[in-house]
# Entry
Amino acid sequence: MLVNGASGIAVGMATNMAPHNLGEVCDACCAYVDNKDIEVSELAKYVKGPDFPTGGIIYGYEGVREALETGRGRVVMRAKTEIEHTASGRECIVITEIPYMVNKAEMIKKIADMVNEKKLEGIAYVNDESDRNGVRVVIILKQDAVASVVLNTLYKNTQLQTSFAVNNIALVDGRPMLLNLKDLIAQFVSHRHKVVVRRTHFDLKKASERLHIVLGLLIAQDNIDEVIHTIRAAKDPESGRQALMEKFGLSELQAAAIMEMRLRALTGLEHGKLTAERDELQKRIDYYNAVLADEGMQMQIIKDELIEIKEKYGDDRRTEIVFSAEEFNPEDFYADDDMVITISHMGYIKRTPLTEYRAQNRGGIGVKGSATRDEDFIEHIYVATMHNTMLFFTEKGRCYWLKVYNIPEGSRASKGRAIQNVIQIEPDDKVRAYINVRRLDDEEFVNNNYIVMCTKDGTIKKTKLEAYSRPRQNGVNAIVIREGDELIEAKLTSGEAEIMIAAREGKAIRFNENTVRPIGRVGAGVRGIALDEGDEVVGMICVEPESKQDVLVLSENGYGKRTDLDEYRITNRGGKGVKTINITEKTGKLVSIQAVTDENDLMIINRSGITIRTAVDGIRMAGRATQGVKVINLREGDSIASVMAVPKSDDAEEATQTEGAQAEQTTEQPAAEVQQSEQPTNE
# Structure
């Protein structure tokens, strides 16, 4: 079953065993015979994993390891592909091996249908060039298509990538049991041991019976004259047989064999053959008795037979195993540098070294932050280090995971890569919040920290970080979003933070995190702030007790101020809040609320894509109900799109207010305002 694979036993007993390489299984069985206490991890050195007859690639080893150790696991299979070029210079994807149990014709039809339905872009046509020598499916790409992007799309949407759910259930003594690799091998070796013992008993019985007859024939040859005389004197065969038994002390079988002797047995040659056969039978009987008396000899027979089978029928492994990136610990290859992660309105993501952004004084014009399409603009910005794990929260309430070093790198002026090519986000969903953590495998950390989320309608939800400590490729539901609402913010807290939620019309509410009880991932949360009709939440901050952070608010026309947190009185969760900025026609509506210190810089991006970085300590403290100072000079028709606090820059340069800066922004078009805030790095 381990070599050939199996699917199903009977009604109510599901099993799904993957086929394995014969030679590898034989080696593992021999290793088990030599050491009955061998661990599964040691056996895995012999049995690398499933070996499918169709070849292909096993992508990632974690599922294989789980299947070997527990008997259950999910093995991801990919087709073997190569990137080639046609005579005309076009790129093409050549498929030479397909996953196990995938129908080639149906796979090609599915690809063709998706191309016709415009679900797959970049493919010109598909050609099946398979013959008796093997599979060869050629996918010709369009001139502007990127082969790696198309291939990843094929993996995601077609049977070029499938999974095999291993479920090693077998009947052991009539009872279904889940068996790991060692259990399967142990049961096989036990079965072979029984076979060897029973076979040896059978061979011993047959050899003893034959020796008994041969000894009788030799007695007859030595006394042939008397035998002939006795037989001739008998009136019938039965009486002759009885006479032989009485005269020579023979058994019934021996006497019957003598009666059946031919005259040729009287020759010297035949006598020699019988003597040789007697000696050979005696040796075999001695060997069989020795085998039955010695378990070590029995086990050696099992090993010898396994080695013989391997030499006769074994072949090379067909399925290649590719270890996933996480298994090589790629953190060792990246310096833990600070990065600015940007996401545009149309969903382009990139990381850029923080050092590329220089500081300017308050009131500067700024520098070009990103190259975008005419209708696009930078919507989210965030600072994290290369080794952080990023948690992406979407407006639909989904959570996705991504290592920072897996985010494509780009210069300050590049537009980045479409986020759908980086994480498997739904086409109609948008990323709205980010959290970065150093480690998700620290049990104490994930059980003592929380994710606090806030929606546009003022709903707040608190969940333990532990609920998000097991990354899944397709993401998980983080919060239930009601119709017409959307998630706008998510923060990492210690459980003792002061929470502030700010609304667009200039109101803000402050309450302690303890007033929000933690619930599971599946839940909608509770009321955080009561909003007037037409109002909406623009942001949320979580201030830890010892952080000494101030509250910074910024309006859409570039006015901002810092206010001491204590100026906001603590109220009950769900109230209307108090005024946090004096909203006038000059200031515009509130767009952002940030928790800052003098050790922060403020990074601001306006609708046209222009970026400015200014020191927070250049913004004076002001009262709770004031309108603040001019933080950024905006050109006519422009307004602030996104704001975040970043670590303070070491060098503060004067802003370059030249025509060059003006020229840089001419290609950018205004777009709708958004809100996004920064999350501190947590270790």
